[in-house]
Design goal:
Blueprint lengths: L44 E2 L12 E7 L6 E6 L5 E6 L3 E6 L4 E7 L8 E4 L4 E4 L3 E5 L5 E6 L6 E8 L2 E6 L3 E6 L4 E7 L5 E6 L3 E6 L3 E6 L5 E6 L4 E8 L2 E10 L2 E4 L2 E6 L4 E2 L3 E2 L4 E8 L3 E7 L3 E5 L10 E3 L7 E6 L5 E6 L3 E6 L69 H6 L1 E3 L2 E3 L32 H4 L50 H9 L1 H9 L8 H14 L8 H8 L2 H5 L6 H6 L4 H19 L24 H6 L1 E9 L4 E8 L2 E2 L12 H9 L2 E8 L4 E11 L5 E5 L5 H19 L1 E2 L2 E2 L40 E6 L5 E6 L4 H10 L5 E13 L7 E7 L6 E5 L2 E5 L12 E10 L50 E12 L2 E4 L5 E5 L2 E11 L8 E7 L10 H4 L15 E2 L1 H14 L2 E4 L2 H8 L8 E3 L14 H9 L29 H5 L6
Amino acid sequence: MNFEGLDPALAEYVPALHPALDPHLNASLLQNVELDPEGVPLEGIPVPDSVHIMEGMYSELHTVVSEVGVPVSFSHFDLHEEMLWVGNHGGHATSFFGPALERYSSFQVHSSDDIRQIQSLENGVLFLTKNNLKYMSRGGLIIFDYLMDESEDMHSLLLTDPSTLLVGGLTSHVIEIDLNTVQETQKYTVEVPGVTIMRQSNRFFFCGHTSGKVSLRDLRTFAVEHEFDAYSGSLSDFDVHGNLLVTCGFSSRMNGLACDRFLKVYDLRMLRAITPLQVHIDPLFLKFIPTYTSRLAIISQTGQCQFCEPTGLANPADIFHVNTVGQLIMSFDVSASKQAMVFGDSEGCVHLWTDSPEITFNAYSRETDFALPCIVDTLPHLDWNQDLMPLSLIPVPLTTESLLSDWPVSNSAPAPRRAPAVDPEILRAMKKVGFIGYAPNPRNKLRNQIPYRLKELDNEFDNFSQVPESPIGREEEPHIYMVAKKYRKVTIKYSKLGLEDFDFKHYNKTLFAGLEPHIPNSYCNCMIQVLYFLEPVRCLVQNHLCQKEFCLSCELGFLFHMLDLSRGDPCQGSNFLRAFRTIPEAAALGLILADSDEATGKVNLGRLVQSWNRFILTQLHQETQEQEGPQAYRGIGSSNFGSSGDSVIGQLFSCEVENCSMCRCGKETVRVSSTLLFTLSYPENKIKDYEFAQILKRSICLEQNTQAWCENCEKYQPTVQTRNIRCLPDVLVINCEVNSSKEAEFWKMQAEYAFKKLMMKKGDCIVLYKSSCLCVFLPSRNELGMAEGGHSYTSIEELKNVWIPYSIKMKLSKNKELEVYNWDESTEVCHHFWQERRPIESTYVYDLMATIVHILDSRTGGSLVGHIKGVTHQQWYLFNDFLIEPVDKCEAVQFDMSWKVPAILYYVRRNLHSKYNLTIKNPIEASVLLAEASLARKQRKCHATFIPLMLNEMPQVGDLVGLDAEFVTLNEEEAELRSDGTKSTIKPSQMSVARITCVRGQGPNEGVPFIDDYISTQEQVVDYLTQYSGIKPGDLDAKISSKHLTTLKSTYLKLRFLIDVGVKFVGHGLQKDFRVINIMVPRDQVIDTVYLFHMPRKRMISLRFLAWYFLGQYRPYSVPIYLPASLNSLPRIPSSTVIPFASVSRGLKCP
């Protein structure tokens, strides 16, 4: 700013100038300001929480202190991050982060000179002082320091491009500096000295002079094009916006300078002055705030702020006052987003004004790097059980005297430590050159680290033979690792070939399909498998089809169809989880996890999967409820759970519940509702012997005391609430609710009670214990025979940790009273007892079908696995993502609470399948291939890139279809570089399909596309891969895209119809395409040109080379492969190029 002609006293300051430092000041004058009577520097002066900011009107949000007593000389909003920079007259710079003005950094720029201008760049901040230009990082490190002549007196700088800077001042020249070389490249002579303000537009450089003139200069030569003589005294400030230039300054009056209340307005099109704008304050600063209108913010030095239009009249009602407590405004700036203004006063205070409570300084700010928290006076926790803990970590006081623990020299003798055996992993990877071996360091121990006690010398571990395969497992003692190997969390080990060399068959010898775990929120894989093995649910979702874009029932049906076609190969539920992440209810329930939470084990997976279980049943019920009209292609709207509409989910899981509330005044209220599952409720008193049937009945017919509103008493009263059921479900779903050590201890004690009862004998038989008439026969200990359910136990260990039965029997009497019993078919007495009562009252037997357990593992964060009874209803299987193993029946009911915690139980009524129609009818019809409207609003029909199929062109079995797909990246891959230079992929990049193209493989229109769909996406795209895919930003946005945009579900249905018809897909690298699209295609329907001429252990041959060698179609790498020129717009796809290779494949065996 130019202050020449002002009162010289304004330029002088003393530390006691600010009234905030005077402890005797009247407190009524200091509203909303916290004062420090000791005069020490204040960290900040926050606005009280009760301050209300009216939307659209600027008002004060926060006030902080930069440096007490030192006037602010310049303030600047960072253009790249959410930061505010403040420089003062003492040469000190301070930065504040965010609207809360949290102090980020503070450092000294110059020892004595004031900071006259600040300019933020991408990698740092420029600071201009009197004869010095410094470029410093945002943390205060000097990047470069450019010194000028001592005679220079610089006041302003202007960044003309990212690498060029203009610097001007009270001299006769303006310097141009190259920021890359930090050298002066040009020196422009200024006819009128004193360039204190510089601005730039798309036509001119604007230079404000101390003489009151504004010169317009050429952008290339810096020559004067025009000049405005604004004021007779001096220029204070000016700003440019559009075609308007507005100035404020001082006029000469009575041999002095007086602030001129007329703002001079100039039209840059005609290069002349227009009607000046009279304001009601003494203007010192002004800035355009172009939002909906070109408003001007005019600031006086006394703290008055007025808003007005440059071509209108100033209204006194638009004047606001900055609460500076009598201090003078020294600096002013407006953020790039126009949502915030900042004022700096003469006592070092910074006042932030905003137009809303939640604002940003920039439209698109990058993340700010914060310093790591300083850990002071903290010592690490020392674990005495760790053999590798160095004793030197224990601090010992320094002393010159002998210690009590010092051994005399006579009792000490050196004992050399035998070197431990070399890690077999090192020996395996070692390469020998002569007699010297070289091996990469596995990095599983610190430098010079060795255990104080070698494990090989311990006799107690001689018989232990279980050694983990991975180096990570070798870091821990295997004998204390409780989790069995098949229950541990499985991960996919990626190589440079990706998944191609990973042997999934090693983990799955069955024909069931596993699910891959690397997709976000794949913790529900085991529950998806449970729903798949419930045949009524599987048939229901595969028969379901609607128009809703993100329908979990549709996506679950597509996923189950893939599991049907797979013959032991793993599948991935990426499309289902993609739709799951878009459901607002799932996010509200906390079911959508971040990658870090799932990987580090910060969430309780047991509680999470129980909430997911409740959510998915409710969601499937809502989406499949019977409504008027045909089921296929129903509208988006669906009735809520509990309405008149019914569904197969409701018939399977729903149970009508009668809730009765009894107030102590005697008023009874009855409410009828429905529930899809039950949650176990455990007794509060001391743990005693309970059967599972007793706890289950107690949980279904729940009785509890609570405070509830009584209409009769008209106040909250202690109320007894009881719950009774009116009917029994076909599938009984139980959430175990073992979320604390108390519930875990209850399960553990009940399993011990059950084991003791089995071991009670009288002669050669176990004593019949009377509890719900459960009778068990077991021979002597050395000849264990048949137990519950007729299973032959091989050891006593299999009887431990078992509490839940394999079957339960439930009876609902005519009075709607529920009875629940543990059921054992081997007990003839009980069997005859039930047979005699069956004709009298209805009874149901439920068999255990699945158990979901939470595996506690501190190393990996835990996981979820499922035990599911197979389709034969005899063999049980363990489902651990893509690991599937047949297991003994007893493992499904054994719960070692130290690492294997029950989460969900599924009991299924016997003869369930006879009640439901298990026929699957494909709901996808040929109409999905017909022409459809695009989601893009700006698509032009004249630029169509495909011709839809006509009715006479519908594909038949064996028809050829060329297929190509393009993808975008949603998440970059996570990889690490090993010590030997090799790259190890920890987590692959997450791809999403962006474009799918299908071309005709025969007929008169051979080579002409009939599908060319761009897939709309709402997820954030990290990389569009434009170099390979041709997809550009905006192509997948329905608001601005000009492409034929559809939903992923719509295009997926087209591909599913082609697969179901039996067409043969021809393409290059189709395996990856189908994987990202998340669709399963039988191998006999795929002709992949990447395998036609592939030799074992050799790299794949590109399609470009094949087209050049066999078809003579050569194109440079910069030229894409196009379709025939008959189309108006030629998409960048190689689909038509692979069609000629289909005939070649008939003579070759394509895998």
